[in-house]
Write a structure and sequence with these properties.
With about 450 residues, the chain is mainly β. It has a domain at about 75-260 and about 435-443. It is built from two helices and 30 strands. It has a five-stranded mixed beta sheet with strand order 1-2-30-29-28, with no helix packed on it. Strands 15, 16, 17, 18 and 19 form a five-stranded antiparallel beta sheet that branches. It has a four-stranded antiparallel beta sheet with strand order 3-4-5-6, with no helix packed on it. The longest helix has 20 residues, at about 30-50. The protein is globular and about 60 Å long. The termini are close together. The relative contact order is 0.14.
Length: about 450
């Protein structure tokens, strides 16, 4: 994007900085060729043959990922959150040392492409003394992309697990433009005889209550963020799910599913579901379907997708590969992350009925990447990439499906949070005590 066509960066503290056009350096010729060759081979294969097995594609494309860039763009907006109650030292390296015992919040969530919410706990991250429980209090702030404060709210919550392990707190986009504030269960007494209920609190753009549902949330759908709850608790394979959309949330569908014993990574979409089934080689050339996962056993996995009419289709992976189902798109296609032995990064892919998999640009093969955020059509998506447990930083990388070169790539703290806007034209970060908003190029 040309610097002349970009708005001047805003800083709510009044200190403007010189705008510079983001620049992403090109990799050297040999490095670029190393990344591009597998993608060129894929294109040639697709042109030469009407059908190419998915296993063959994944075998070739284990290195089909963009080169890492280093240039960091300037933020268009920076909001100092200490002026809005962010506790001092919230982003210290050891700030989350009690996260396994005390529930804390740190999140950034887009309500729409013009408004973003940032949240953090103002209560202590750890007990101030061994016998004094932490009473949780989270603050949620909604800002416009030009920096104006639109809404603020404090939410009390049960934070202290009484010495027991607690779940990681989160907030995300909810159905109908709401914020989904997840409430985690904690032990109410040191002996663990009573537990509080887990649930979800849905907030509108003004941070007013839309609904509170005291049920354990299984997941949300990718496109509309509909809520998926399992009815009751069972160890069996036959289960019933309620899918709620809104607001206000109401049941749109009830799904009764008899899962295979070896089903993994169950995901629901607006009009169907998808899951992986994997057989394991327990003896030479003897693959068995079992609910247990055996360390070191060779895997033979297949993606299965079903529509509302129960009509199913599948796609097989190469022997030894596994995949995580990430999302079901509006057209019924399935996004997944394939893991193999060829690289640490794995490969991001989209499967469609009766078609070969589409391999998407992904993190460099020497990094471990996880999907963090994406637009509803998956035209743009972002990953956090690192393989170094000793470092406090990784890389935040934003991709456009039409380009093998990332449209944003910079160092990013592990204790920070980031999210793409719904239109894919911006991303927001919550890092180093600030809310920051960055523009992305149009193409």
């Amino acid at each position: 994007m040309n610097a002349a066509h970009r708005e001047k960066p805003r800083n709510v503290q009044g200190t403007a900085s010189q705008i510079q056009r983001p620049s992403y350096h090109n990799a050297g010729l040999s490095e670029a060729a190393g990344h591009a060759l597998p993608c060129i081979l894929m294109t040639a294969m697709l042109k030469m043959k009407p059908f190419v097995p998915i296993a063959a594609i994944f075998g070739i494309l284990s290195g089909c990922s963009p080169a890492q860039t280093t240039k960091e763009p300037p933020a268009d907006l920076r909001v100092n959150l200490s002026q809005h109650g962010l506790p001092q030292g919230f982003f210290r390296a050891d700030a989350e040392k009690c996260a396994h015992e005390i529930i804390s919040y740190r999140f950034v969530v887009w309500l729409d492409s013009e408004s973003v919410a940032v949240g953090f706990n103002t209560s202590p991250n750890c007990r101030v003394s061994p016998g004094r429980k932490v009473d949780g209090l989270a603050r949620v702030l909604v800002f416009g992309v030009t920096g104006e404060l639109k809404a603020t709210r404090d939410i009390p919550y049960l934070a202290d697990g009484n010495g027991e392990v607690v779940a990681e707190a989160e907030a995300r986009a909810g159905p109908g433009g709401t914020i989904l504030f997840r409430i985690e269960s904690v032990n109410l007494d040191p002996e663990g005889r009573q537990e509080s209920k887990s649930g979800v609190l849905l907030l509108d753009p003004k941070l007013q209550d839309v609904a509170r549902i005291d049920r354990f949330l299984e997941q949300t759908t990718f496109v509309d963020h509909a809520l998926v709850f399992q009815e009751g608790f069972t160890l069996g394979q036959l289960r019933t799910y309620d899918i709620l959309d809104g607001p206000p949330p109401s049941e749109k569908r009830q799904w009764r599913q008899d899962w295979p014993v070896n089903a993994r990574d169950r995901k629901f979409g607006e009009h169907g579901l998808a899951y992986m089934v994997c057989q394991q080689e327990l003896r030479p050339n003897d693959y068995v379907a079992t609910g247990a996962v055996y360390a070191g056993a060779k895997q033979r996995c297949t993606l299965t997708a079903e529509g509302e009419d129960r009509n199913a289709w599948s796609a097989s992976l190469r022997d030894g590969e596994t995949a995580e189902v990430l999302a079901i798109l509006a057209d019924g296609s399935v996004v997944g992350h394939v893991n193999g032995k060829e690289s640490k990064a794995g490969q991001l892919a989209i499967w469609k009925r009766d078609q070969i998999a589409e391999l998407l640009p992904w993190v460099p093969k020497n990094l471990c990447g996880s999907l963090q955020s994406a637009t509803a059509d998956f035209s743009r998506y972002a990953a956090f990439a690192t393989c170094d447990d000793r470092s406090d930083h990784g890389r935040w990388i934003v991709f456009d499906r039409r380009s093998q070169t990332p449209i944003a790539d910079h160092a990013f703290p592990k204790n920070a949070r980031a999210a793409l806007s719904p239109d894919g034209m911006r991303y927001a970060t919550f890092e180093s005590g600030e809310l920051r908003i960055y523009s992305l190029p149009k193409s």
